[in-house]
Amino acid sequence: MMEESGIEATPPGTPPPSTSTARDAAAVAAAAAAATPVSLGTLADPITQQANLSSALAPGTDSTITFPEEHDDPRVSTATGGLWGFIKGVAENPMVKSVLDKTRHSVETMITTLDPGMVPYIKTGGELDIVVTSNKEVKVAAIRDAFQEVFGMAVVTGEAAQSNIAPQPVGYAAGLKGAQERIDSLRRTGVIHEKQPAVSAESFIEELLPDKWFDIGCLIIEDPIHGIHLEAFTQATPVPLQYVQQAKSLTPEDYSLRWSGLLVTVGEVLEKNIQNVNRTDWHMVFTGMSRRQMIYGAAKALAGMYKQQLPPRTV
To answer: Whole-model pTM?
Structure first.
C-alpha cells in the first residue's frame, strides 16, 4: 500500500542518519576557511597555518578559530624615507643621471637659443663662487661666460676695485701689479673675504717691437683656499704710434704714478680723435673683435687652467 502511494518507508531496524558526520564536515570547512589568510598584501607562514589547522581539528578541543599571525612583508619597506630612499637610489644611478643630464642640456640649449639672455640665469649656481674685481659689464660678463662654459655652472659677481696705479699702465709688470692691487684692495677693505677666489683684469700697453705698441689685457685668478695663482693674457691689439705719443704728451713729467704708466689712457685719446669710437671698447674699430670677446678668450683659458689645478671632487 505504501509503495503504491509513492512514500518509501524506512525499513525497521535501520538507524536514523547520524548528524555527527555533517558536524565534522562543517568543522573542517570552518577550519580551512580560518586557515586561509584574508589579507592580500601579506603571505601567512605555512607552519602557522598547519598548527592552527591541527588545533582546530584535534578531538576533544573547542572549535575556536585561530587566525595566523601577520608578518611584515620584507618586500615593503616601512622605514622612514623609504620612498625617498628609492627615488634617491634611482637618481644616483649612472645611466639615469646620464639621461637626465642630456635632457637638461637639451632643454637649456633650446631656451638659450630662443633667448640668449637667459644663459647667465640658467648657469648661475653650483659650488664655484668667483668675484670679479670690477663692476663693468664688459669684464664681468666676459669672465662669467667663460667660467660657466668651463665649469658648467658658476656664481660670478663683480665688485668695483681700485688698482692704485696709473690709469694707463705701461708694461707687463704694471699690468700684473694693477690686477693684483684690485684684489688686494677688496680684501683690505673687507668687501670680500680673505679666502674668496677672485679674478682681476687690467689692460696695459707695451712696445713689443720698435715703435710698435700694443694693447694687452692681463687676467689673474687668486684662490687662497687651494693655493692657486694663475695669469693669462688677451691677444695683443695694435695701437697706432701717434696716439701713444699723444697720451705721453698729456702726462706731466712729475706725475706721481709715472713709474707705472700714463695719466691719460689711449682709449681717451682715440675717442677724441676718431668718430664713433668708445674709450672703453675701441678694439672693435681696429680689429673687428670687441674687448669683451678678447677678455672672454683669455678668461676661458684661465678657467681651464684653474679647473685642472683644483683637487678632484669627492662624491
So the answer is: 0.62
